[in-house]
Specification:
Elements lengths: L4 H9 L4 H4 L23 H12 L7 E4 L7 H11 L8 E2 L2 H8 L2 E2 L10 E2 L4 H5 L1 E3 L2 E3 L3 E2 L6 E2 L8 H5 L2 E4 L2 E4 L5 E3 L21 H9 L1
This protein binds zinc ion.
The site of zinc ion has 7 residues, from helix 7.
GO molecular function: 5'-3' DNA exonuclease activity; damaged DNA binding
GO biological process, one term: telomere maintenance
Keywords: Exonuclease, Hydrolase, Nuclease
């Protein structure tokens, strides 16, 4: 079953689960995500990131890339790409649409009533994604709303001007290669397949709807 080795180790070491992982107690029920139960080898995320960095580094320094991230879980990839393509003096940033930016910015909580309140990052990737203060110095995150960026993960179907007007190298993540060399695309099996894509949840209002709202 597909599971990152670090995740399995973390479960075994978790203080809440150690009684169970060491056999002292028995769990009544285990719920498993059975999206991938076939006998297929999956590379680890770090192996995938290493392959991606090797490929990306072969392109000229002015190449414009678009990395398709339509589901959660690619935060490490953004941070790794930004670090690999950036320099000591320049943060390499990734252009994202407003929806993704707002979503990741919401992972930083600050008390608005305190002028010098420190920020609380709600997940380990948040500082690398949206920036953080170290002492009195602000360090930018790898995500940006600046369309002049060279790497883009802006919304499918509503690409920014740079992506529309450039010769773009498209990076489409795969989850594994089958023994015959065929690639298996990330389809977001089991839900979450489009949770980073903005979808209108309300239908358009008809003139009748507007009329009934005005009368209400
Ligand atoms: Zn863009």
């Amino acid at each position: 079953m597909r599971s990152e080795p670090w995740f399995v180790n973390a479960i075994a070491r978790s203080p809440s689960l150690i009684e169970y992982s060491s056999g002292l107690k028995t769990l009544d029920t285990i719920y498993l995500d059975t999206s991938f139960v076939e006998d297929i080898d999956f590379p680890t995320k770090s192996e995938g990131i290493r392959e991606l960095l090797q490929k990306v580094s072969r392109y000229p320094a002015d190449t414009v890339f678009h990395f398709q991230a339509w589901t959660y879980g690619y935060e490490d990839v953004w941070i790794a790409l930004s670090k690999a393509l950036g320099s000591k003096t320049q943060t390499f940033q990734i252009h994202v649409d407003e929806y993704k930016m707002l979503m990741f910015r919401s992972l930083v909580a600050t008390n608005p009533n305190e002028k010098f309140a420190s920020s609380l990052h709600l997940c380990p990737e948040a500082p690398g994604l949206v920036g953080f203060m170290c002492g009195n110095t602000y360090h930018a995150g790898c995500l940006t709303r600046d369309e002049t960026a060279r790497l883009h993960s802006c919304e499918k179907g509503n690409y920014c001007t740079t992506v529309k007007n450039s010769s773009v190298v498209w990076i489409r993540p795969i989850i594994t290669r089958l023994p015959d060399g065929q690639t298996v695309a990330e389809l977001g099996v089991g839900g979450g397949g489009d949770d980073l894509e903005r979808e209108a949840e309300l239908d358009y209002l008809s003139p009748e709807d507007v009329k009934s709202l005005l009368e209400a």
